Predict the 3D structure of the following.
Amino acid sequence: MSKTHIHRIDVHFGDCDPAGIVFFPNFSRWMDESSGAFFLACGVPPWRELLHARGIVGTPLLEIHTRFLKPATYGETIEVHTSIDEWHAKTFRHRHVVRRGPDLLCEGTEVRAFVIRDPDNAERIKAVPIPEDLKALCL
Amino acid sequence: MSKTHIHRIDVHFGDCDPAGIVFFPNFSRWMDESSGAFFLACGVPPWRELLHARGIVGTPLLEIHTRFLKPATYGETIEVHTSIDEWHAKTFRHRHVVRRGPDLLCEGTEVRAFVIRDPDNAERIKAVPIPEDLKALCL
Amino acid sequence: MSKTHIHRIDVHFGDCDPAGIVFFPNFSRWMDESSGAFFLACGVPPWRELLHARGIVGTPLLEIHTRFLKPATYGETIEVHTSIDEWHAKTFRHRHVVRRGPDLLCEGTEVRAFVIRDPDNAERIKAVPIPEDLKALCL
Amino acid sequence: MSKTHIHRIDVHFGDCDPAGIVFFPNFSRWMDESSGAFFLACGVPPWRELLHARGIVGTPLLEIHTRFLKPATYGETIEVHTSIDEWHAKTFRHRHVVRRGPDLLCEGTEVRAFVIRDPDNAERIKAVPIPEDLKALCL
């Protein structure tokens, strides 16, 4: 469906909560980082350049779904394996698999859309059809 | 079912990303805050006290599912309406509905378990049956 | 000098680290929130409006200095008392005093400047003289 | 004074604010990460082990001072160069120099202490004299 990119993370003290384990919204943050790293690794320009060239602001989230299987803690290195497993007209779906060596820590999907500033209201954003050239870079 | 608690949040500049909208993991953070506020509002003691009294460390996440319908930005006040819509033997499910006035911004569920330190390995945590007295406080 | 604004914060589980106390960068985040709340309370329009009306992007930091006296933990409510104690040609200095009831938890200063996009390079920002009308609103 | 450790950071979209630059408390977070990485690189065991072996919880902050010279944005890689430039009886001072290639982005100091749980009150922490063996590992 797409290339797979591996985003490596060293878990730090401040990423963990009073139970001593990663505070879970950090997993969402790392999946988002991994989404950005995925596109860069595929050769998609940074959003900053796409904004200037084509008005594309980024790929905000429409839906996330994550299952947490094992906790992680500071001092550990984990990996987010990121791909795109579904392409639709105006959305695509990331799959993120988070591993620590052989252990599966969590896995999740993210549904995202490419968006531009709404031409009728600069305060708002608006989904556009998946740009075919950018999609081709990811396959 | 359960009581419903409303957690009010003022969105700040630093909660938003370069697209000018809330960076989505903050919604997970606010839902987590609202879960904690829900239990306190129901009369459940803080985790710190439950840890000393009964070994309960907290209610970590097993699964989250969130749909994002409209973005929010800084200067806005939003509300997380939190309840528990499913109780199982060792897990329960939160429902969080995030509103800005009449607008539905996002809604999500969280499956959580009450956990204790694993008696066989203090580094690990372990789910326990839902404590009936704590559940009763939430209904 | 200036008016003083009080920003109230409920400390949550996820704001704390494995030592069970607030992870200190959160104090910087709360001081930044309090700076934003200070200006709004003084009647300064949100940065979003100032950007459209006058090109002002915000008031980024030039320097911070914070002393931490007592830790805070989740379940506590703390207050950031924010004022401006120095005005210079192109910078001003915030004073933030963080209290929990009678206890002084930390105190800090922030030197900030009002900035616009650099007309020669939209990727960069540039300090401007303190706008006298905005200053007047704060006194 | 001490060894120097270099902590490398890829700046991500979610680390940046609506002005498109790194939200400054992230620099404090990265300096804290770099402090942890410094001690591990010097051979000091993780806090988790020191807690079990010697009751040491970590090295919380007493004071921070940071000057911000140039902003950073997503897509950039930056480095935190961390050392210890002062040792006192119960405190030490980190120096952190943050660079992006030849550019100096910010620099700061952190005064920290090694702490244990207060034997008279497990909710509180207490500074201890700098452990000479741990100091020796850092020189």
User: Anything to note?
Assistant: The first strand of chain C starts at residue 5 and ends at 10. The two ends of chain C are 7 Å apart (CA to CA). Helices of chain C lie at 25-42, 47-54, 132-138. Chain C has a mean pLDDT of 94.
